[in-house]
Write a structure and sequence with these properties.
Helix content: 55-70%
Structural class: alpha+beta
Number of helices: 5
Strand content: 5-15%
Number of domains: 2
Number of strands: 6
Strand order of the largest sheet: 2-1-5-6
Largest sheet: 4 strands, antiparallel
Length: about 190
């Protein structure tokens, strides 16, 4: 009787360990979502633009799209976090820098456009103020319009700057490699 109980306890411990490894793997694994489809090393088929395609380990079937999101255990993460988790710190730094540059260009450009509008508005209202005899200054109007145009240029540069550093196929390959190493590490721990 005690041997049966010991055997049942041992079996339940093995099953609990295997279950906890699967839970840990599912919480830590990386995935890449492209056009409403999640792919990673556990997924063999990709539905892309309405057709199913088999994907290889390098993710070659998905093309060279930069429209992807990284996930860790089902939770969306930034591109920088994705590469940090995968251990590619140089890519993470560059991804964070790209995001900061994009934001700086966009918001800086909007700020310059607002300042330019302010200059033109103040110039226009100056003609109706205390010293109405002078009227609006053409030079100040040109300066205001120039600042607006420079601001518009920076805003367009920020908005059109790519939001991702790497293409989706590269990210899928990184996720595959990371997930294989994670599975191997968890398997080694259980032995």
């Amino acid at each position: 009787m005690s041997k049966v109980i010991a055997l049942m306890l041992l079996l339940s411990m093995v099953l609990a360990t295997a279950q906890s490894e699967e839970i840990q793997y599912s919480q830590e694994r990386l995935a890449v979502k492209i056009k409403d489809t999640i792919i990673a090393s556990d997924y063999e088929w990709l539905t892309f633009l309405g057709t199913s395609k088999r994907i290889g380990g390098d993710g070659s079937a998905i093309g060279e799209s930069k429209k992807w999101d990284g996930y860790e255990g089902g939770v969306k993460i930034s591109e920088g976090e994705f590469y940090e988790i995968a251990g590619l710190n140089e890519y993470a730094k560059r991804a964070y820098s790209l995001k900061a540059d994009k934001r700086s260009y966009t918001y800086g450009g909007v700020g310059m456009m607002v300042a330019g509008i302010g200059i033109v508005l103040v110039n226009f209202l100056q003609g109706f103020g205390v010293d109405a005899s002078r009227g609006p200054s053409t030079t100040l109007a040109y300066i205001g319009v120039g600042v607006e145009l420079v601001g518009l240029t920076f805003t367009i540069m920020g908005v059109t700057k790519p939001s991702k550093l790497t293409v989706a196929s590269f990210a899928v390959g990184v996720a595959d490699e990371y997930n294989k190493n994670l599975k191997r590490t968890l398997d080694e721990r259980s032995k």
